[in-house]
Specification:
Layout: E1 2-7, H1 11-21, E2 27-32, H2 41-49, E3 55-57, E4 68-71, H3 80-97, E5 102-105, H4 110-121, E6 128-130, H5 134-148, E7 155-156, E8 159-161, E9 166-168, E10 174-175, E11 178-179, H6 186-206, H7 209-223, E12 228-237, E13 242-252, E14 255-257, H8 266-291
Parallel strand pairs: 1-2, 1-4, 2-3, 4-5, 5-6
Antiparallel strand pairs: 7-10, 8-9, 10-11, 12-13, 13-14
Helix pairs in contact: 1-2, 1-7, 3-4, 5-6
Length: 292
């Protein structure tokens, strides 16, 4: 049975723990929170009493034998300063106890969280990953499937960048072996692209903790044996400095492996570069604040 500690102080903290308690994956689920009474641990304990997976409050010593830390938000309003402070504290406790497992960042700003979780912990870059644009990609694929009246699993498409600031790779979208762009003709095709983009934008603004729980469960399954290729947030070395953004990678027992590189059209790559420029500015602002 794998040991998973869910860390945070938000609705997502309790929601993810609840999902994992009910999971078919054999997990020992724990919560690490500054104010555990606010998360209704009694209800989670009651849930575990009727499920196969045990639940308990985490203690610092348990970090040494923990397989995966799941980092969630510490502030409901998405306060980045509070979230990073909470993350740093729990990571310091875990590393001091001898933690050497994997980290899943399930914060709202998962790309920023992934970057700083790796920096704070010093863990290998392959061991830290965030939810990235997994949910957004699934929304994109289902929009295409609905438009062409085909099963969702017949569609392969990717959203890259961040959950809040992304590029849809229409040029690399396929239904089976057929490029979606070859099926988009004239004004109808342009209207469909606009409709899908608007639906994805609305979805990205309304993703909640329930969705996060589902994604975390699937990533845990990948880390524990059911390999997956998905656009998660992971560290990426560019010529200037490391950053973290969502792009398709392989997730398995090794952690994150860049299996292949998916490049969009010139316009899509320009859009992605603009996303990454804004992300780099956010990282630089946080780092400047730390040095001040």
């Amino acid at each position: 049975m794998k040991k998973v500690v869910v860390c945070g102080q938000s609705v997502a903290t309790a929601e993810i723990a609840s999902r994992l308690i009910q999971s078919r994956l054999p997990l020992a689920v724990m919560i690490s929170a500054a104010q555990p009474e606010a998360l209704d641990l009694a209800a989670l304990s009651a849930l575990s009493a009727v499920c196969d997976n045990p639940f308990s409050k985490a203690t610092p010593k348990q970090f040494a034998t923990t397989d995966v830390l799941v980092l969630t938000d510490y502030a409901e309003a998405g306060d980045l300063t509070a979230n990073l402070a909470g993350m740093r504290k729990v990571i310091n406790e875990a590393m001091a106890a001898g933690f050497a497992g994997k980290v899943i960042v399930a914060m709202q700003a998962s790309e920023l969280g992934t970057y700083f979780a790796q920096r704070f912990s010093g863990l290998p870059k392959t061991a830290v990953l965030g939810l990235g644009t997994m949910a957004l990609t699934q929304c994109f694929e289902r929009q295409i499937a609905s438009a062409f009246d085909v099963p969702a699993d017949a569609v392969t498409a990717y959203a890259v960048g961040t959950q809040q600031d992304f590029a849809l790779l229409w040029s690399r979208a396929f239904i089976g072996a057929t490029a979606v762009m070859s099926l988009l003709q004239g004004e109808d095709g342009a209207a469909l692209m606009t409709q899908c983009t608007e639906a994805c934008t609305t979805f990205a603004a309304n993703v909640d903790a329930t969705v996060a729980g589902r994604l975390v469960e699937r990533l845990l399954a990948a880390l524990f044996g059911r390999a997956l290729i998905a656009p998660v947030a992971s560290l990426y070395d560019n010529e200037a400095k490391p950053t973290a953004y969502a792009r398709p990678v392989q997730i398995d027992a090794r952690g994150v492996t860049p299996a292949f590189e998916v490049k969009g059209s010139e316009a899509e790559n320009t859009q992605l570069e603009a996303c990454l420029t804004r992300l780099a500015a956010q990282i630089a602002a946080v780092e400047a604040g730390e040095k001040a």
